[in-house]
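Structure representation:
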Amino acid sequence: MDRHGDTEIMVSIKEFAEFVGVRQSVLRYYDEIGLFSPAVRGDNNYRYYTLPQIQTIKLIETLRSLSMPLKQIEEVMASRNPESMVNILSEYEIKLNNELRALQESFSLIHTLRTQIQGGIAQDENEMGIRFYAERRIALGPLTDFQPGETYHRCFSDYYRSARRQRVNLSYHIGGYFDTFEEFLASPTRPKRFFSLDPNGLDLMPPGNYLVGYSKGDYGIVNDLPDRLKDYVETHKLKTTGPVFHLYPLNEVCIENPNDYLARISIRLV
């Protein structure tokens, strides 16, 4: 076979199958139904392919992997031209982009849950220390409106409703936010706002050193953690600047009894 004066290199069906990772029986079937045929047939009726045909069979296999019916692939290949190929590839490009975004969101959620849980497993509820946190995106809710004598949970549920309206991904951890350490100490069970670890949020958790302490209990229960944090700050002569984040790395996702949830208070330092 000759193209532009050069002799085209042919490979056997066995070698071609090895090149493209497709079984010989599949190549023979494609040939029988007229979907993809060898470049030439030898005198012995053996099938021979050209190396550029690799691109075509790879496209066919890619379309099959995307669940395009074989009959439709036959129609695409039988009537292919630059315009029709651009149309079909554009259609699948949009479809794949949507699927890729969904996979990225799923990966982000799984990664965040895994790191939060893994980080909480090794923590002693009496442990306290300073850690550096990198900047991360969060989704802050509106100002809370706690009424006298009211518990944590009504404003907590209000955040879920507002977050849903704002299309915040509610699969991520939800926590409480305070502007300053003093604000936290004055009312540790009444956050100024609630927030989500949704990485698509429009707000930021600032980077820096944080004083971190832990406590066990259901949502809104901090036990003696505020007093322990206050003592630590005073004993080590630390200066706080805020904000303060109250999160539950170990919650209902991995623990059945709410009394065993692990809360983490993180206070940004100067």
The two ends are 76 Å apart (CA to CA). Residues 1-5 have pLDDT under 50 and may be disordered. DSSP finds eight helices and 13 strands in the chain. The chain has two domains: 2-80, 109-269.
